[in-house]
Specification:
Strand order of the largest sheet: 1-13-10-6-8-7
CATH superfamily of one domain: PPM-type phosphatase domain
Oligomer: single chain
Strand content: 5-15%
CATH class of one domain: Alpha Beta
CATH topology of one domain: Phosphatase 2c, domain 1
Number of strands: 13
Distance between the termini: 125 Å
Shape: elongated
Structural class: alpha+beta
Number of helices: 22
Radius of gyration: 40 Å
CATH architecture of one domain: 4-Layer Sandwich
Helix content: 55-70%
């Protein structure tokens, strides 16, 4: 009786369930019924289509081969659909196009309407990706016609929407609007709220593109109301961003900020970094419209930082994902090999048990012996089947390892593409900064015509980055020539922002308010900077500001007024005249034969809030014809270089100015430029530029 129970248990194990993936795989590997195998292959192909495209391709190609053998046209079409979808998921669009196009032609041949509708829509997507909008439109129209035949209203609405998108690429706004409206009518009929909201959003985008802001706003609000009702955070984020962009376009900064902040609130909940990045950029524009330059700059910094973070994180995630997947799959392979060894040992043990049973069975009666023979036959069959399964598993492991290798290569290509994309973004940012340089150049007197009022002079202007935190400014009011060289806190984009503020305030103070006394100009400039940067003198507050040297010269009498914030003034003249020129306000620093250099020291406080807030000192100087004055920032003296990698220093700078003071101003410029270049590169090392460099020389 016990032996009969064992036989029943063993036989019952043969009738396994076919309702799970493992069962489907078992059928594929063991069944002799082609139709059952074909059905299982199709289910496996469908199951792995997006989860594991390589595994889906394996089952799809097996199914395609069997379908061709059985001449099962419908299954041939379905397998070609799945193969094309797997290649699409892997971004192998050329391969995807081949199988989808082949399936489409086969569907047409047998008048398979469902296949034509499905595959023509897929072909439209492929041609859209390849920017072949004419073919994309052709196949989407075919998909629309066949979905209407099938009365599949949901797919009809989706295809209408896809056709509208294609017309957007062609800038045919009338057609785009026509198809979006048709899709909206159908979606309203179906009552699909989320798709209705999507249609309103698309329609609003078209009206925005044609500058019909009222209709754009109306449709955006309709979409927003639906997303609010559905509590769809992503939809709310997108539509509020669009409304904010619309108000930016209309130059309504207040309303733009309102909706952009609402979009930001929703996006932060979802941690949608790509959308948050766009919101920061638009908030920067909105605050700029309101004239809030500092807030605009803060959001532009957030935009830049988040953009860098996104691309760095994406690259890091790609590499981490590849490494993790590789390590996981490596461990799984090792586990499978260990299991195989265990199975082989169990097989040997089972064989020994069978031999024992066989010997004991000889003793039993004929009936018991017969039962043992049956039992032995079943066990041998099961052992044979286990061996076959083990061989199949090993073959699958080899195929999967090969597929994993292909996937790693694909991921490597993806990382390469990401790198190229990051380089492209870097180029775009650099182009933007170059454009900012054009704006800065537009307010600096860089041309010869703009500087004709200076007479014989030179300006050595070498920004550390593309844009500069140093600036120089020149104007002439009646007989007074007013010249400034300033060094703002920082360099690059932050320094450039400060320089633009400085130039704007100087134009306001000198040209509009007509304040032209040197020390009073600096006093007023300090007030404007403190107000603009909202400096309160609190602990930990940023100390942004600028150091400056400002001189006003009467071009007829050579009377001169000068004031300085941290930056001094150098005057070089002949010994018989220069002592009287600067008497009482400076000390003789360097002498070269009969030529002397005098330094007029600046007040030790910047143009910014500071612990010392005295009024700036006015220095009156009577210059003589032939004297040379030098205005400069600290970039030249602070540049590292030379044989020991030390700073150039002010002493060496003064000696150099004395040595070249008898030369024409253009030649002085060339010598200064070449000297600092040699200082950074001429001793077997290359030192980067430390700060913006500005030196201006004017000959009286």
């Amino acid at each position: 009786m016990r032996i009969l129970i064992i036989i029943i248990i063993l036989l019952s194990q043969e009738f396994i369930s076919y309702n799970n993936i493992d069962s489907l795989k078992y059928i594929v590997n063991t069944s002799k019924t082609d139709t059952l195998v074909l059905k299982s292959l199709l289910k496996l192909s469908q199951h792995y289509k997006e989860k594991d495209p390589y595994l889906s391709l394996k089952y799809s190609f097996k199914g395609l081969k069997l379908s061709n053998k059985l001449k099962d046209t419908l299954n041939i079409i379905y397998f070609k659909v799945n193969i094309g979808t797997s290649y699409y998921t892997l971004a192998k669009y050329d391969s995807s196009l081949i199988y989808w196009l082949n399936g489409y032609k086969l569907s047409e041949k047998i008048s398979f309407t469902k296949g034509i509708a499905m595959l023509s829509g897929n072909l439209g997507l492929i041609y859209e990706i390849n920017n072949d909008f004419d073919n994309a439109l052709k196949y989407q129209q075919i998909s629309l016609t066949n979905n209407k035949k099938l009365n599949n209203l949901y797919n009809v609405a989706g295809t209408l929407n896809n056709i509208g998108i294609l017309y957007s690429y062609k800038n045919n706004y009338d057609k785009e609007l026509e198809y979006y409206n048709e899709a909206l009518k159908l979606r309203l009929k179906l009552g699909d709220s989320i798709e209705i909201a999507s249609s309103y959003l698309n329609i609003g985008t078209v009206y925005y593109a044609i500058n019909d802001y009222n209709n754009a706003f109306r449709n955006y609000i309709l979409a927003r109301d639906i997303y609010k009702k559905l509590k769809n955070i992503n939809g709310l984020s997108e539509v509020c961003l669009n409304i904010g962009q619309l108000y930016v376009k209309k130059k309504n900064g207040k309303q733009a900020i309102k909706f952009l902040n609402e979009s930001l609130e929703h996006s932060l909940k979802e941690n949608n970094k790509l959308l948050i990045k766009e919101i920061y950029l638009n908030l920067s524009d909105a605050y700029s419209i309101n004239g809030d330059i500092l807030e605009s700059y803060e959001y532009f910094k957030k935009f830049s930082n988040l953009k860098d973070s996104i691309f760095n994180q994406e690259s890091f995630n790609q590499i981490t994902e590849m490494q993790t997947k590789y390590e996981t799959e490596k461990k799984e392979s090792e586990i499978l090999l260990l299991n195989k060894d265990k199975q082989l040992k169990n097989t040997e043990l089972l064989k020994r048990n069978i031999e024992v049973r066989k010997q004991r069975a000889i003793i039993y009666s004929f009936i018991i012996g017969f039962i043992i023979i049956v039992l032995f036959t079943i066990i041998i069959y099961r052992l044979y089947r286990q061996k076959m399964i083990a061989n199949i598993i090993l073959a699958q492991q080899k195929e999967e390892i090969s597929a994993q290798r292909d996937e790693i290569e694909t991921q490597r290509d993806l990382v390469t593409n990401q790198k190229e994309h990051i380089e492209e973004i870097h180029k775009e940012v650099t182009d933007s900064i170059n454009y900012a340089k054009r704006i800065q150049d537009a307010v600096l007197p860089v041309s010869e015509n703009a500087r004709t009022v200076l007479g014989e002079h030179f300006i050595l202007f070498k920004p550390k980055d593309i844009v500069s935190g140093d600036f120089y400014w020149i104007t002439k009011i009646n007989n007074w020539l007013i010249v400034t060289v300033a060094d703002c806190t920082g360099h690059g984009v932050p320094g450039a922002f400060m320089s633009m503020l400085g130039i704007s305030f100087l134009n306001e103070i000198v040209r509009k308010q007509e304040i032209n006394q040197a020390n009073e100009v600096l006093n007023e400039l300090r007030k404007e900077i403190i107000n603009a940067l909202q400096q309160k003198g609190k602990l930990g507050e940023q100390k942004d500001g600028m150091d400056i040297s400002l001189i006003a010269i009467n071009t007829e009498t050579f009377e001169c007024q000068w004031a300085g914030a941290n930056n001094p003034l150098y005057v070089i003249g002949r010994s018989e005249t220069s002592k009287q020129s600067v008497a009482g306000i400076s000390s003789l620093i360097v002498r070269n034969n009969d030529v002397e250099l005098y330094e007029i020291k600046a007040d030790k406080m910047p143009i910014a809030i500071y612990e010392k807030m005295d009024k700036f000192t006015m220095h009156n100087i009577q210059l003589k014809k032939g004297d040379i004055i030098y205005l400069f920032g600290d970039g030249y003296q602070d540049q590292f270089g030379g044989a020991e990698g030390k700073k150039f220093m002010s002493k060496k700078f003064k000696e150099l100015l004395l040595q070249i003071s008898d030369k024409p101003m253009t030649e002085q410029y060339a010598i200064l430029d070449q000297t600092i270049t040699n200082w950074t590169t001429g001793f077997g090392k290359k030192y980067p530029q430390t700060d913006d460099i500005t030196v201006m020389g004017i000959k009286i």
